Each structure stands twice: as C-alpha cells, then as structure tokens.
Amino acid sequence: MKRKVLIIEDEAVTANILKGFLQQHHYDAYVATCPELARTLLGRHRFDVVISDINLGKGINGIDFVKQLIKGIIPVVFLTSYSDSETLKKAELSQPYAYLTKPFNDDQLLLTLNMAIVNSKKRFIHYQNNTINKHRVELTNREIEIVRLIAQGDTTDKIANTLHISPQTVGTHRKNIMYKTNANNVIELVSLAVEMNWI
C-alpha cells in the first residue's frame, strides 16, 4: 500500500517536480499550492506525512499553518530555502519531524520521510484507540516496573524471575495493566508508556 504524502508548496513547478519524484518512489503524492487547498485535502484524505514549505504566501506561513491545522497529528517535514536561526526557532515550536533546506538531496529526503512516518506511528499508535485517555491512566509502581520489562521484550517467566514473584502474579498484573490502559496489544501499551514517561 502506497504511503500518502501532502506537499504544501506555493510554487507549482517546484511542487509538481517533487510530486513526480515521490511518485517514482512509490508515494501517493498530492499537491496543495495554497493553504485553502491544503485544508480541503486534509479533510478528504488520511495522509502519512506532510511536506510543507515555510513561505506559502497569502498572509500565512507554513509554520503557522502546521500549528493551527495539523497540530502534531501528522508528521511534518519542512522543506524550505530559509535557514536563519530565527526561522528555525519558530519552526521548532510547531514540532516538525525534520527541517530540510533547498536544494535537498533526494536520498536524504526519502530517508527523512520514511523515518518521520515510522517514528510517528510508534509515537501515536495508541491514539488510534480513541478509548484510551492518558490523563486517567494510573498504574501502581509494580505495574510500571512490569511495563518497563515488557517494553524490553521480557517474557512472563523472565519478568517473574527478575521481580522474584510467581508467573501467575505477573500474568494478573499484565491483565490489569491492559485493562487500565485499554491497550489492544503490547505495541499500543509500549507507545502509551513512552508518552506517559513510564519508560
């Protein structure tokens, strides 16, 4: 399945060159040459990653657009000719996954997009389960210990040996942990644990 990327770039020629390049590398690329079109496309499609220029014209820049509309839900890579420290500091406030300056290296762009998507899925996978409310999740110290060992890939028996408790007790703790967090699997649990700073 192709990954979907939204290119927000006010220069149509640049945007279409980038679109063609990404399509050659198995991305399903969409172009928005203005914020209005970007809003429409974001409402119609579920994108894996967004590439945004900083200078979008029409009274809004890419940094403000990302902060207002994308809000950390989709990983963003800024691709721009701006490299001054003031712009970089502003860009950091929108928490992009990367910041590449033009002219960019093709291999570097592909690697950056791939890493942005992979890291985003690790970070946000538990958001896919809307019933998880991280502000209401409370684990005991023992449960957090077990979560940390689970995150290391330890089996129930190994956790039991490490904590000097029975495998049955570990199994009970694991059930309680999954119930409290409402995680469907270990991947969701570990993702939530990272977000909650348990590990």
TrEMBL record:
<dbReference type="InterPro" id="IPR001789">
    <property type="entry name" value="Sig_transdc_resp-reg_receiver"/>
</dbReference>
<keyword id="KW-0238">DNA-binding</keyword>
<dbReference type="Pfam" id="PF00072">
    <property type="entry name" value="Response_reg"/>
</dbReference>
<feature type="domain" description="HTH luxR-type">
    <location>
        <begin position="132"/>
        <end position="197"/>
    </location>
</feature>
<feature type="domain" description="Response regulatory">
    <location>
        <begin position="4"/>
        <end position="117"/>
    </location>
</feature>
<dbReference type="InterPro" id="IPR039420">
    <property type="entry name" value="WalR-like"/>
</dbReference>
<keyword id="KW-0597">Phosphoprotein</keyword>
<dbReference type="InterPro" id="IPR011006">
    <property type="entry name" value="CheY-like_superfamily"/>
</dbReference>
<dbReference type="InterPro" id="IPR016032">
    <property type="entry name" value="Sig_transdc_resp-reg_C-effctor"/>
</dbReference>
<dbReference type="Pfam" id="PF00196">
    <property type="entry name" value="GerE"/>
</dbReference>
<feature type="modified residue" description="4-aspartylphosphate">
    <location>
        <position position="53"/>
    </location>
</feature>
<dbReference type="InterPro" id="IPR036388">
    <property type="entry name" value="WH-like_DNA-bd_sf"/>
</dbReference>
<dbReference type="InterPro" id="IPR000792">
    <property type="entry name" value="Tscrpt_reg_LuxR_C"/>
</dbReference>
<protein>
    <submittedName>
        <fullName>Response regulator transcription factor</fullName>
    </submittedName>
</protein>
